[in-house]
Every structure is written in structure tokens, then in C-alpha cells.
Design brief:
Elements: H1 15-26, E1 34-39, H2 54-57, H3 61-69, E2 71-76, H4 86-93, H5 105-112, E3 121-131, E4 137-139, H6 147-156, E5 166-173, E6 176-182, H7 213-230, E7 238-245, H8 253-257, E8 261-264, H9 268-276, E9 280-281, H10 288-297, E10 304-309, H11 311-317, H12 321-333, H13 335-339, E11 345-349, E12 366-372, H14 385-388, E13 394-397, H15 401-408
Parallel strand pairs: 1-10, 1-11, 2-13, 8-9, 8-10
Antiparallel strand pairs: 2-12, 3-4, 3-6, 3-7, 5-6, 11-12
């Protein structure tokens, strides 16, 4: 590359690349098993000053017992004060710096439902929403319409065409769908059309740079023609588009860590993220119990297992404090089933915090628990936000969690002489 001074400069490796090269060099194979259990949006806040969070309110005897055996801390998904989306939050947990490896939500959703993105594709995650008579959003998720209803609405959108591009509209789950635009010269640098609020109309697609102007025009025309078709729908009579993106290039878990990695998730977006980092999607589950059945059935075939539990996040987004407490207790109840498989390392954490009080993602560090025979116990006897702030892991970047997992699984050799 030629710099502004006219001289040729050799590109410098980024910190993420240097860390990945180090991990590749130090990674060692053995028979140890690692389980990463992600309770989406796990962290919370008290409803009143001095009160308890959802995690502190829940009865979690199994997680408390694990905390006494292991070591705990608070992970920062991106940077202090930065509120992450689910994509960056999970990338950090998987050991990819979310500031250097950026994946749009559209690519995650499309890949998660098995849509193979090509080199000329731009995908966006769609939410059906409810518009009032004035065209303003009255419900950002169209009442979380059932998947069967959403599939019917998506079928109506197959009639939408825009000159110069191919359009693929696919259902995902409940109010979510994916739209893929295929054609030359398209770019994912288009702003979301979701205003993240009710009482206002959806935003128009806006290009974030000159190269994305054509894509924004295509998206706007797709929305306009779709709205005409959806006008008579009782709930899903509008849409917002988020996370415009092309397929990213990421090193796989096998390349990076030498791990045969399995993903057991219910929601397509998390399946998509797992596929993009080279994990194998295992089984089809709709409940946490079924996910544990799948885990047991494939235990001998993989070294690393990513289990995703969505409902600690969705209850938080709904502002349902008591419901999130119940979901945390549901998660706690399956811990003995995981322990029965004798994982060498068991990690319980979240990709971000979703306090019911805020009804959305937040910047707060995420409670994290790592249990292994190689742990240095930190004296805690419970798993909660307050306890984790006193834990032996301290407050640490989430992108370092996989390094800790590999070390406790005795899968990292010594650095230097």
C-alpha cells in the first residue's frame, strides 16, 4: 500500500491477528471437553435502588454451587460503556474482537436459516411491525406473531420484485424474517430503518457511504412495494430492516483453536453466528431440555459445545422482571445434566446484559462463571452480579474468555522459553 507520504509501507498486523496467531501456535490437542452455556442477556439491574437484580432474585442452588467450586468475574462484551448487539456480544465470547470482526445481523440471520450468501449478496434482518393509521409504529414486533402466521405473510412478499436485482425473502421465527438482495455493486453500508421506538414511522434506508447508494434505493423500493401488499394485514402491516451485511471472512474454530466445535441453539441468528465461525450445527431443538438431550447424544463427537438459551434476553426486553427470574431458574435446573457429562471446563455467562428495568440491551458487565478442576477458587459462594464483581476473574474483556477456557482445559502450551 502507498501511504499519504508517497512511500510504500508494509501493513502491520492488528492486535486481534497477533492474538490469533499466538493461539494457533500454542494450541494443543487433548481429550478435554469445554461447554460454553450462554444465557442471552443474563445481566440485569434492580428495579429499585438497593434492590436485587433478576439473577440475585432467582433461586440458583446449582449455579451457586458451581461458583463455590470455580472462579467468577464480569465480562465486558466490547468496551466499557458500549452497549452491544447480540452479534458483537457472541463474537467476543468466541474470542473474536468485535471491533475488528464485524458481522451484520442480516448475515447472521440468513446463515442461521441455511441460506448460503454469495459474493453479490446483501442480507438484512427484517422485523414485521404494526403501523397505525398515521403510518407510525405501534408495536415494533407485530405482537410477536406466531411463526406460522409470519410464514404466511412472508409468502405474500414473494411477489415483490425490484428491477436489476434478485430478491429472496425467507421466514425466520415469529416476527423475524430475512431479505437478501443479489446483484452487482451492492453494499452492506446501509443504516437500519428501525427507529427503536414506537409512535414514529419507520426510517427510510440511508446509505452510510457513496458505494451503498444503490443498495439503499433497492431497499427503499422493496419496502415501498411490500407495504402495499401488507396494508390489509391486522398486525404485520409494516416492516423495519436491520443489520444490512455481506458474508464476512472469519477464521474457523478448528483453524484457530484446534477444536471440533458444536453449536446447539434454537434461534436462527445464533445458529448463523456459529456457522460463520465454523461450528457444526447439531440437532433440532425447541426447548432447553431438548438441547441437553442433543448435547448428551453428540458428547463423544466434539471438543467444544456452545449452548444458547434465548429467553433470559427476550423476557428482559419485554420488561418482565418476574418472567426473567423464572427463566434463570429454568437454566439453573439443567446444570446437573451438564455436570453429569463431566465437562473439563463449564462456563456460564451471557453475551450482554438485558435488564428488565431498561427493556433492552445495556452496557453493564456480564456475570461470568468458569468451573474446572484447574480453577483457583475465589471464595465466592453464589453467582450474581454483586458476587462476580468480587470474583477472581475480575472485570475482563469477553474476547479473552476463550483463552481462559483453553488454558483451564490444558489446551494451551507455554509461551516462550
Amino acid at each position: 500500500p502507498i501511504a499519504a507520504d508517497g512511500k510504500k509501507h508494509t501493513p502491520r498486523s492488528t492486535p486481534a491477528v497477533i492474538e490469533h496467531e499466538l493461539v494457533r501456535d500454542l494450541a494443543e490437542k487433548n481429550t478435554s471437553k469445554i461447554v460454553l452455556l450462554v444465557a442471552d442477556g443474563l445481566g440485569g439491574l434492580p428495579l429499585e435502588p438497593g434492590g436485587r437484580t433478576e439473577l440475585e432474585t432467582a433461586a440458583t442452588p446449582n449455579l451457586d454451587r458451581l461458583a463455590a467450586r470455580g472462579t467468577s468475574g464480569s465480562s465486558v462484551p466490547v468496551l466499557p460503556g458500549i452497549t452491544p448487539g447480540s452479534g458483537p456480544g457472541h463474537l467476543g465470547l468466541f474470542g473474536y474482537d468485535p471491533l475488528e470482526f464485524r458481522i451484520g445481523r442480516g448475515a447472521l440471520e440468513a446463515t442461521g436459516i441455511g441460506f448460503e450468501l454469495g459474493p453479490n449478496d446483501v442480507a438484512a434482518r427484517g422485523n414485521f411491525c404494526t403501523l397505525d393509521a398515521a403510518g407510525s409504529i405501534s408495536d415494533r414486533r407485530a405482537g410477536r406473531i406466531p411463526s406460522a402466521e409470519s410464514f404466511r405473510v412472508v409468502e405474500r412478499l414473494q411477489a415483490v420484485t425490484v428491477p436489476g436485482v434478485e430478491i429472496f425473502v425467507r421466514p425466520v421465527k415469529e416476527h423475524r424474517f430475512v431479505v437478501v438482495f443479489r446483484g452487482p455493486g451492492l453494499s452492506g453500508a446501509v443504516a437500519d430503518t428501525d427507529p427503536q421506538a414506537t409512535g414514529v414511522p419507520p426510517l427510510a434506508p440511508q446509505p452510510l457511504d457513496a458505494a451503498a447508494a444503490r443498495t439503499a434505493e433497492v431497499a427503499a423500493e422493496f419496502v415501498r412495494r411490500s407495504q402495499q401488499i401488507l396494508a390489509d394485514e391486522p398486525q404485520a402491516n409494516g416492516m423495519v430492516l436491520r443489520g444490512f451485511a455481506s458474508r464476512p471472512a472469519l477464521p474457523s474454530y478448528e483453524e484457530l483453536y484446534g477444536l471440533r466445535a458444536a453449536a446447539i441453539a434454537v434461534y436462527p441468528m445464533y445458529k448463523g453466528l456459529a456457522r460463520l465461525v465454523g461450528m457444526t450445527l447439531v440437532g433440532e431443538a425447541t426447548t432447553l431440555s431438548e438441547q441437553l438431550d442433543i448435547l448428551a447424544s453428540c458428547w463423544n463427537d466434539y471438543d467444544f459445545f456452545f449452548l444458547h438459551f434465548k429467553y433470559t434476553d427476550s423476557t428482559g426486553e419485554d420488561g418482565a422482571f418476574a418472567a426473567k427470574v423464572k427463566r434463570i431458574e429454568e437454566l439453573d435446573a439443567v446444570i446437573p445434566r451438564i455436570e453429569a457429562l463431566s465437562p473439563d471446563v463449564l462456563i456460564v455467562t451471557g453475551d450482554h446484559s438485558t435488564p428488565s428495568r431498561l427493556k433492552g440491551h445495556s452496557w453493564h458487565p456480564v456475570p461470568t462463571l468458569l468451573a474446572a478442576d484447574t480453577c483457583r477458587p475465589d471464595g465466592l459462594d453464589g453467582f450474581s452480579e454483586r458476587a462476580c464483581l468480587r470474583g477472581g476473574l475480575g472485570i475482563f474483556p469477553a474476547k479473552h474468555l476463550m483463552l481462559l477456557a483453553m488454558a483451564h482445559a490444558l489446551r494451551l502450551g507455554k509461551y516462550g522459553a
